[in-house]
């Protein structure tokens, strides 16, 4: 992934296209095929991608382009990552119930926002 200097919280589809090396129409198509890829939209209705969305896109690209999976095969792998028994056992052993896991993700997002704001303040 290219480094554009300041890490952002949200990226436009054109920025994600440049970062991932994929055409915008491919990104839009993948949204219809992969249920995990659902970028939010801003007030103007434009897609806004997070860093997690970009990581997912790069994983999909790797599965399809490098590892030569079909879209259906890539869907199975991605859904398997979310529902694997090993992951469920790990979650239970580490007390990562969906509620606690959601709080953990929120905490990680807030830490990322905090880091972003500190970096922004330092640049001003």
Automatic annotation (TrEMBL):
Keywords from UniProt, A to Z, are: DNA-binding
Show the segment(s) annotated as Disordered.
85-104
Q: What Gene3D superfamilies has UniProt attached to this entry?
A: 1.10.1660.10
Presence of keyword Lipoprotein: no
**Mind listing the GO molecular function terms for this protein?**
DNA binding; DNA-binding transcription factor activity
Q: Which SMART domains match?
A: HTH_MERR
Keyword DNA-binding among UniProt keywords: yes
Matching entries from SUPFAM superfamilies are given as:
Putative DNA-binding domain
PANTHER family, per the entry: BLL5018 PROTEIN (PTHR30204:SF15), REDOX-CYCLING DRUG-SENSING TRANSCRIPTIONAL ACTIVATOR SOXR (PTHR30204)
Protein name in UniProt: MerR family transcriptional regulator
Q: Which organism is it from?
A: Melioribacter roseus (strain DSM 23840 / JCM 17771 / VKM B-2668 / P3M-2)
């Amino acid at each position: 992934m290219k480094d554009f200097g300041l890490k952002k919280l949200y990226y436009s589809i054109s920025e994600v296209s440049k970062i991932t090396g994929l055409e915008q129409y491919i990104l839009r198509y993948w949204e219809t095929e992969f249920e995990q890829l659902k970028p939010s939209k801003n007030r103007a209705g434009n897609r806004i991608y997070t860093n997690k969305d970009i990581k997912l896109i790069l994983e999909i690209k790797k599965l399809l382009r490098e590892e030569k999976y079909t879209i259906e095969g890539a869907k199975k792998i991605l859904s398997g990552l979310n529902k694997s028994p090993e992951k469920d056992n790990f979650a239970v052993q580490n007390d990562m119930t969906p509620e606690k896991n959601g709080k953990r993700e929120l905490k990680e997002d807030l830490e990322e926002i905090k880091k972003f704001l500190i970096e922004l303040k330092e640049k001003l």
